[in-house]
Amino acid sequence: MAVRAATSDDVPHLMGMIRELADYEKMPSSVKLDEATLARDLERGAFGGFVVVDDESHEVAGMLLYYLPYSTWIGQFMHMEDLYVRPAYRRKGYGKVLWRAAAQLSRDRGYVRFQWDVLNWNTPAINFYKKCPGAVDLTEKEGWLKYRLDAEGIAMMAESTD
Question: Which residues form a coiled coil (predicted)?
Answer without folding.
Answer: none
